Amino acid sequence: MTELVELTRAGTVAHLRMNAPGSLNALSDAMLAALKARLTELGEDDGTRVIVLSGAGKAFCAGHDLKEMQAGRQAEDGGRGYFADLFARCAEVMQLIPTLPQPVIAQVHGIATAAGCQLVATCDMAVAAEGTRFGVNGVNIGLFCSTPMVALSRNVPRKTAFEMLTTGEFLDAARAREVGLVNRVVPAGDLAAETERLAQTVAAKLSAAVRIGKRAFYDQAGMSLADAYRHTAEVMVENMMLRDTDEGICAFIEKRAPDWA
Question: Where in the chain is the domain with CATH 3.90.226.10?
């Protein structure tokens, strides 16, 4: 049986590929469950240092499965309970990614729309192929992308986010990079290699430091300036107490490669 989310490995980098090309990797009930299971599994794996998330077929992810959503309307309550549960489950997956100890890199091609664009915005970094289009287009069918807005508005300037949300227009890859939705844009033929280079660069760093840093990155973002400095000073102390951090500093001073455990 074909797995909805395939897992492969390149050393300490784990590659997750959404594998429902017929639906443009829509975030169906099954896809959300598979993503949550895979991400949870990898989050508990000390041997995984970086996670790369991609999509099979012509697109990264086209958002929620609209046919499945319409089927949910057949319930006695008109679908209210189903929709509430669906968006809660999607939010669980989106909130899981920042809490994982490993950086998560989106490898994006084709389109990333609605909750698919939300997924890109939620990942810690993103590499996009030239020609990729990004949108929160629900308004075009009468459904404002309110939940995708949460991640989008935390990635790009407010006016850019609001324009995307209210016009339903796409951003091309170059513009997505300009506004901070993605880190890098490369020719389509170089997408996998460039994403792998980025992932391996991060994976080569001291894993404990990256894990401490990722947690602090998101924790401090919601704090006042004074609280953020107080918190990150404590994190720096925690980091300095690591044996491998001491070794890394000594190696730098002595102009040699660090001997990390």
Answer: 5-203
CA–CA gap between residue 185 and residue 122 (Å, rounded): 18
CB 50 within 8 A of CB 78: no
Residue-wise pLDDT tens digits, 81-129: 999 999 999 999 999 999 999 999 999 999 999 999 999 999 999 999 9
The b/e string for 209-240 (b: 16+ C-beta within 10 A; e otherwise) is ebbbbbebeeebeeeeeeeeeeebeebeeebe
The length of the chain in residues reads 261
pLDDT, tens digit (0-9, with 9 covering 90-100), for 2-38: 799 999 999 999 999 999 999 999 999 999 999 999 9
- In this predicted structure, the answer to whether residue 235 has a pLDDT above a threshold of 70 is yes
Residue 1: what pLDDT? 57
SS (H, E, C) 53-83: EEECCCCCECCECHHHHHHHCCCCCCCHHHH
Measured distance CA(152)–CA(162) in Å, rounded: 9
Give this prediction's pTM. 0.96
The CATH architecture to which 207-253 belongs is Orthogonal Bundle (1.10)
For residues 20 and 80, give the distance between their C-alpha atoms in angstroms, rounded to a whole number: 26
Rounded distance between C-alpha atoms, residue 191 and residue 189, angstroms = 6
* Rounded distance between C-alpha atoms, residue 117 and residue 98, angstroms: 16
